[in-house]
Input
Amino acid sequence: MTAPALLSRAASRGDVAGIEDTPFAALASPKVRWALALLAVGEATGDKFPNAPDRISLPGLMGRVGSGALVGATLFTSEGRKGASGAAVGLLCAVLAAYPSYHLRVGAIEGLGARNWAVGLFEDALALGTGLLALRDGSSPSPGSTKARRWFRSGTSKGR
Output
């Protein structure tokens, strides 16, 4: 839920151009922003418990797929592109990221003797920081914005 929450935060601040004219306009609502933020906090909290499902189990993977598809469809649609294509890209990225991140977490727990909750907190901080950095108003443009389209087309994103 972190990705949809961060997207909603950016949209509610006006950093996602074109979202107003899409079926995903509700993501720009402050109420939706806070609801998604609460869901993200709940997910992050629940993830620290030993009985939480693995991210590569069906329940964990489906949540990631849904979040990825929502974010991808929203960003593509806000750019005037096909939402189904964005959803496909988003869900593919979610699945492809789930497996290596799962194995990194397990490796950190087993290899370093770290506690699950501590590794989870580090992961949460990394995801939040990366998301905020990607969506900040500054040199790194918000996905879906006119500035982002110019930034990506100019080739300045290569190697990042």
